[in-house]
Amino acid sequence: MGYVAVKGGTAAIEESIRRLKYERLKKRRILDFHNIEGGMRCLIDQVMSESSLYSETLAAISIKQAEGSPEEAVFLMRAYRSTLPRKHYTRAVHSENMLVERRISASFKDIPGGQILGAAYDYTHRLIDFDLSEETEEEIINWLDDFSREYGNGNDSTDLANLPKVLDYLREEGLIAACENNDSEPDDVTRDSVRFPASRSARLQILTRGQTGAVISLGYAALRSYGALHPTVGELRIGNLPLYVDNPFNEAKEDDDAYFIGEIKVTEVETLFPVPAPKENGLKTIEFGLGYGICYGQNETKAIAMSILDHCLEAGNAEYPTHNEEFVLLHIDSVESAGFISHLKLPHYVTFQSELDSVRKSKKMRENNKEFKP
Amino acid sequence: MDRKKRTEILLKGSFEVVAKLAQEILHKYDIKTVQEPNHGLVMVKVRETSRRSMFYLGEVLITECKVLINGSLGIGIVKGQAPELAYYLAIIDAAYNAGLPETKDWTTALLVEEDRIKQSHESFKSKVLKTKVSFQTMDV
Known about the structure:
The complex is a heterodimer of chains A (about 375) and B (about 140).
Chain A: H1 10-25, H2 33-39, H3 41-51, E1 53-54, H4 56-65, H5 70-81, E2 86-89, E3 93-94, E4 99-104, H6 137-149, H7 166-172, H8 200-208, H9 212-224, E5 232-245, E6 259-278, E7 284-296, H10 300-315, H11 325-329, H12 334-343, H13 349-371
Antiparallel strand pairs in A: 4-5, 5-6, 6-7
Chain B: H1 3-12, H2 15-26, E1 31-47, E2 54-69, E3 72-79, H3 83-97, H4 102-128
Antiparallel strand pairs in B: 1-2, 2-3
Helix pairs in contact in B: 1-4, 2-3, 2-4
């Protein structure tokens, strides 16, 4: 297949870009990116997660520029990210150190530390609140003042920065297998292209930056018919993780000498999969497989779906596409999938013309064959 | 006070405290900026809890600055776009690394700020814990 260079579209392209700006501005309303940052928390979380770049401000500006298109905003973030140097790596982050603001379990009613609902849409009626169209700044300030003056639950001494993990509780009970820390350095799919079979670290990195809809759809497919699983969320927690960077001039990398650089909000999920297992006496018992999901911001459905896909890819049952690494990992990235689909609308004049030529030749040959009657 | 605790207080506390400490040094010493505040990335390494292995969660936008005071290097690193804060953090870090006498007086101010952070944390915690479920078994 050959390519030919053509020109003549420059003026049209420039006018097309101006027209795009006109579409963004034609209603004569300036969308302040601070308003996006303040009021579109979930979209910002989604864009940060899919672009694999944590910055609420950059995500808000990207969303503004992309007129609210997540795939375009993620593309902008990824492009910007590629211009920046990677200066450091954090010390390994442990979710036991999360300052939790929401934490629930679907497996156990009474978990140590309790079920903490935090902020979630789960308990709302899903009815459009038409009063929001009349919301004023004065109203929200009054509401916030009242909220901040309210007393908390001072009688509860639960330490939200040190909540025990449900999995640890199960491990202590011997209900799931104990496991040692694996300190192998992770692979980095942003530096080296993924190779199959992929390492666990590469799999988790691709899953966490996967496009939200794609991860959820494949997770749902795994539940509904391609594996027929029914897991239970052992623990879902949302909160801030502290980030530390080693002092680059301290070779001993002492913990106390590290720089605290801030916190990031994440959603983390551990899912339990009941699996039948044979016992010594020939009877069957139940064991629990685990799935792990985590993503930037508050995006619970994505994190749960990621945990399902993590379990599927660990199992690797050849019968199901959702257990196939290449099928899952090569198709869930927002920029890769949207980019490839999108390229179909770019000029394919030469390739299409060659296909037309081929069809015309075939047609002519058929017609000639019809005329030739020995 | 070790660097970990110091940077926690400075970043979780108010900007005014950071600015005040840095200003004390700015007015007295010659500060050479080795690296102007600039953006970069920090890759987040996570220990997952299912198999206790490690992987990369993604990158975080940071602002970083480096300064020299009396030949001692100081680094300011902060999440997000915060050039002024990164500059002040670098000055405070360099002041500690150079062992400047001013830093001895800062411990009290930092501990006071730590108390304020703890109070704020307690307030946050008690509000969040209002959403904790108190299960009651129903008679059916």
